[in-house]
Design goal:
399 residues, mainly beta, Beta-galactosidase, Chain A, domain 5, 10-stranded antiparallel β-sheet, 4 helices, 31 strands, 10% helix, signal, isomerase, Aldose_1/G6P_1-epimerase
């Protein structure tokens, strides 16, 4: 089967399976805490413990497992994916996301490892934006910018488990968090939910909802950091072959803030309109590559913009392991990050130091610094409105 036909088939399966997941969740049964799911077949959900924070707060885990060999472990701290086991072409499973073996790593050396980031994912220039004539000042945590919601964004909170369900074909967990008015400088009390669903089609769906009592800005994403070759890493995550459904990126200034213009990718290292090995591209000479510390940390404009159902955005294949994944999303942008700022100072799973290009992220979201760019897709939400987003990751093997 050709790469193009395969991607169309994968996108179709993901869209169909997402509908199946949503309908199954309505009739699936809850999983009790500290007990394995009682179903003998299908997708199971198991609640457990994942240690305690330094203040004594207990962190819970929920493990979703299907019969095809995929196991997704989630934790309440940061509403994060702690591990994601996916089989290779020989059927041997391995963890494909970087992170830490214990809660101490997530709390003491945060690096946005597979967490839910908010209230505003990505950068806001100067830590300021204006809404209805009022300027809001946010704390800075990325030199001159506010990044991923500020120094204590939603990734550094212990979310509550609202619901855990399981059924014959899917299982899910919903985390919830209430962010008070003024949290990290943002207006409005926001109630947020994120639901992770695993099904028998090897789809991991991440769905978000949020409401507010005052006008505010919201931009949520999962900061998944992947290496399809497996963790601990034996080779670079960027050695995988990538295709992105995008014809343009948002070029950035020296502070990594979008200039407001679009840049066609044709003829540049950012061109993944046809499959290409990422390592080859990030090592090419280009001013935008240099600005991002010798890699990619840019927003790709996904064809189709904001859509009511997920559309295909990314296809990533590791030919050595045979693991492949697609990402479909309702969002207009994908922030691609090639691990350019991993410098070996952080020790992850298995005691491995996390170094450059060892992980790659595709963050489905609205554009960076949107509140300061009226022409960008809006991130504003008002009372009575509900913010929603759905992103689906589909896993398969390449023979």
């Amino acid at each position: 089967m050709s790469v193009t036909k395969k991607m169309v088939l994968v996108a179709s399966l993901s869209a169909l399976s997402l509908g199946a997941m949503l309908s199954l969740n309505a009739c699936s049964k809850p999983a009790s805490k500290d007990s394995a799911a009682t179903a003998t077949a299908g997708v199971t959900a198991t609640r457990g413990d994942f240690g305690k924070l330094s203040d004594g707060t207990a962190v819970e885990s929920v493990t979703l497992k299907n019969t095809k060999g995929i196991t997704l472990k989630l934790i309440t701290y940061g509403a994060a994916m702690q591990s994601l086991m996916v089989p290779d072409k020989a059927g041997t499973p391995a963890d494909i996301i970087i992170g830490y073996d214990s809660i101490e790593g997530y709390e003491k050396t945060p690096n946005y490892t597979n967490v839910t980031v908010g209230r505003y994912a990505n950068r806001i220039a100067g830590g300021k934006f204006t809404l209805d004539g009022k300027t809001y000042t946010l704390p800075l945590n990325d030199k001159t910018n506010t990044l991923h919601g500020g120094p204590k964004g939603w990734d550094k909170h212990n979310w509550a488990i609202k619901d855990v369900t399981q059924g014959a074909d899917s299982a899910s967990v919903t985390f919830t968090l209430t962010s008070p008015d003024g949290d990290e400088g943002f207006p409005g009390t926001v109630v947020a939910e994120v639901t992770y669903t695993l099904n028998e089609n090897n789809d991991v769906a991440i769905s978000y909802k949020a409401t507010t009592d005052k006008p505010t800005v919201i931009n949520l994403t999962n900061h998944g950091l992947y290496n399809l070759g497996g963790i601990p890493a034996k080779r670079l995550a960027t050695d995988a072959e990538l295709k992105i459904e995008s014809d343009a990126i948002l070029p950035v200034d020296k502070a990594l803030i979008p200039t407001g213009k679009e840049m066609p990718v044709k003829g540049t290292p950012f061109d993944f309109t046809s499959p290409a090995v990422v390592t080859d591209r990030v090592k090419m000479s280009d001013p935008q590559i240099t600005l991002a510390n010798g890699g990619i940390d840019h927003n790709y404009i996904i064809r189709g913009g904001v859509t009511p159902t997920p559309k295909l955005a990314v296809t990533l294949e590791d030919k050595t392991s045979g693991r492949g994944m697609t990402i479909s999303t309702t969002e207009p942008g994908i922030q691609m990050y090639t691990g350019n700022f991993l410098d070996g100072k952080i020790v992850g799973k298995g005691g491995q130091s996390l170094t450059k290009y060892q992980a790659i992220a595709f963050e489905a979201q609205r554009y960076p610094d949107s509140p300061n760019h009226p022409a960008f897709p809006t991130t504003r939400i008002d009372p009575g409105q509900t913010y929603t987003q759905t992103t689906v990751q589909h896993f398969y093997t390449v023979k």
